[in-house]
Specification:
- The chain is mainly β.
- Helix content is 5%, strand content 55%.
- The protein has a 5-stranded mixed beta sheet with strand order 5-14-13-8-9, with no helix packed on it. It has a 5-stranded mixed beta sheet with strand order 16-23-22-18-19, with no helix packed on it.
- The N and C termini lie far apart (94 Å).
Length: 349
Amino acid sequence: MRRSAETINIEVSNITGRRFGRFRVKFSELAGATWLGVLLLGLLVVMGGALVAAGPGPALSNLSPTQGAHVPTATKVSFTADDPDQINASSAQIAVNGTSIPATVKFREIGHYETRIDPYWGTEYQVWVVDGYDYTSAAIESNAITNPPDVNSVRVSIADGLGNISTAQWTFYSSTPPNIANQTPANGATISTTLPTISAQITDGDGSVDPSSVRMIVDGTPVGVSCNTSYNTTMASYTPPTPLSPGTHTVNLTAKDAVGNAATSAWSFTVPAGSASFSSPAPASGSTVTIPNPTISVLVSSAAGLGGGATMLINGSSVPAVYTSFTPTSGKISYTPASLPDGVTTISV
């Protein structure tokens, strides 16, 4: 508001700088009104401008990835914003799992096609010429997001030229399945035991393997697989309760992560004729012991005869097991550890 000798000039704009108008009041027209009345009039006009500014924000559409979508190992978040009061490009924000991601704002081009003539071939071709941009419509896109976790929460926001803000929130998922590796016995291997521990290592990027989803099929029959999970790795294992027959044996293993992405692995191994047969493992598979140093043993037999040289692994590490011969074709392998760690212990012989 500015006062001259005979008039008061009032100009109104909101906090974003948008001008709503101006008017002039002559002293001769105040008709005895006090200065307080004039100030109140100006205040009402300013409040009216503020109410205009507090309207709806931009309309958001084309949210991508869509709600609940499963995406590959690299993706981008994008959306479209439209507002007749124009789009404030500097206000665009994209956050994934609480972390801000740099975003690029592109306004819709306004232009026309022009016909040009190739100077070499003499043929006509069309060229798009940009005359300007429509600042009421913008496409916003984030930088690439690589190896997203299984579950991803997105929040985007943007304001129009008057400062009105719109936000949107949604969730998308990774489509990357778990990885199955370190299959034992190895694919194509010929083993020397009829009671092998069949196992594989299942890993997921953010540690979300679902142990309840793990399924193992041996020679076409589902078996009771045991799962031991540590951080992002799950060890799936199964030891046959009875000796496997000589020949080739097939294994199929499936597993899912927390959002249902499935992985499958198939392999086979061979048990030759005359292989050693193991029975009566102690402590029994799946049992719980209450002492730290139980004697670990298993009976072994082979029609082809046994020559000693037994090997025992505890949690993947070799231990000095003792072989006791009963007959030329049977015996026992045993070992008593000083102390076993708490938790699941895996034995291989």
